[in-house]
Amino acid sequence: MKAIPNEISYNAAISACEKGGQWLGALTLLQQMRDARLTAISQARSTVISACSRAGCWQDALCAGGFSEIAEVTACDLDSFGILLMECEQRDLHSLELSMSRRLSAAARQGDLLLGLAAVLDFSADLRQQQLQQQQRQQQQRQHQASRAAGFLPPQALLQPLFAGVACSHQISTRSLSYHRELALLRHVLDTAQPGDPASVAEALDAFGRNLGLKAGSKWAKFAGGSKAKALLAAMKGGPPAAPGISDTSGVLEIGTYCGNSALRLAAALPGVRLTTLELDPLLVAIARTLVAFAGLCGAIDVWTGHSELLIPRLKSRLLEQPTHKCACFSAIFMDRWGYDKDWALIQQHELLQAAGGVLVADNVLTTAAASFLWKVAGPTASFASQVVAVSEVADASQEDWMSVSVSRRPASGLRQTSVEAAFPPELAELQQQQQPKQQQPQQQQEQQQQEQQPQQQQEQQQHQQQQQEALPPELAELQAESERLRQRVIVAGGSGGEVARSEKPAFTRHAKATLTRAGIGPSD
């Protein structure tokens, strides 16, 4: 009996190739699907584009897109657009970037997306084009770095079509209800806030969340407002200065832009500080850029499209290209995405947080049960001075969540001795020994002999105790596993993730709070 491959088997094989780094194999399988005239290839196309992007083969990713053959834009296609827009933005492929934005706008007009998104996508594309042209002029005048810190309001020629288009966003698409709340949020801001006034925009955002919370059964407010916003701003203001001429760092990094609420609050509270924010969803990027521009802060905020897993490794080289900063790192980082461990590992790997005094803030660490991350930053052997703060959601003051605030300790005063020694370059240690007076060498030899004479059993016992302290306790490890399983149900739930979150998160949050408290992690009394 001969097995005939179908969409399911092809998708499984392509996914395996992507996980194994076999981008060429994935690309070949996608072409076979096209040759076989299989119709449901959106998921396969997205996976192939991701594989090509991870391998650095961005030209092949663009070829794999096949956007001319896309009759209807699906959720998987949005993932593909997000990856390719990231490649265009990071590689300065401006014409192609604008072309793909226009393709998404056309998808909204043909009913694949909410109609109001067409005006937002057009506005975002026009704004990007205007900014790029302005930056080119400033570079020619050698005023790029000095001029881009100042904000500016988009001209009325751009704002008027935006107002008109978003005003009709109550017309629901026949194919999709996604993003209707985000569009309602944007419409409320445009209707009630003052252009160029960040405080007015922030108040409009909070008012929208409060009003939504008054509706029966509605507790949606996926942004940091109210007590969350106050805690975030207090933490960031307590970090090292990052304004040009004061600090050598590159400002503040936010992971998880959503609609841009936190970004515009931070930029308004930290004048002169550059803010970089990352968002996977290209439609949310367009909404965030629109809100930021309406608040008059697009000159202070960079909103980049792409998954943090792909963008964080690229940030280092981008920061190194900025001649005004001696240190290619951020003075503060705000993590607002369910995936703290992976993001933090990449941040550490690429040394993106200022080593001494850098501030690391993570939101929603209770409702997501970020047990492993909290143990790393707030556990007994953590290299941070950390505090966990209890905050409430803007749409429901009774809904408790936690925000962790951590400050990187200076090696001389905060880290364990082993960490200090490990950070000290061996070459410098050897050179230092060579430069010491010869009369000190006998004393050093004696100390070394004494250390060598310590019982091997005692040294092994100390190492074992240290490993036990650093290891994640079993109860927290189980909580972390439960968190990952819930995350999969919320994110990969075929559009029903919101229902999963509403039905399961309250009980899960109570369980997480009890478990973390028993481990000594939580807000101080």
TrEMBL record:
Its EC number is 2.1.1.6. The lineage of its organism: Eukaryota, Sar, Alveolata, Dinophyceae, Suessiales. It comes from the Eukaryota. PPR repeats lie at residues 6-40. Residues 430-480 have a biased composition (Low complexity). Keywords: Catecholamine metabolism, Methyltransferase, S-adenosyl-L-methionine, Transferase. InterPro entries: PPR_rpt, SAM-dependent_MTases_sf, SAM_O-MeTrfase, TPR-like_helical_dom_sf. Belongs to the class I-like SAM-binding methyltransferase superfamily. Cation-dependent O-methyltransferase family. It comes from Polarella glacialis (Dinoflagellate). The keyword tRNA processing does not apply. Residues 430-525 are annotated as: Disordered. One of its GO terms (biological process) is methylation. The keyword Transferase applies. This is catechol O-methyltransferase.
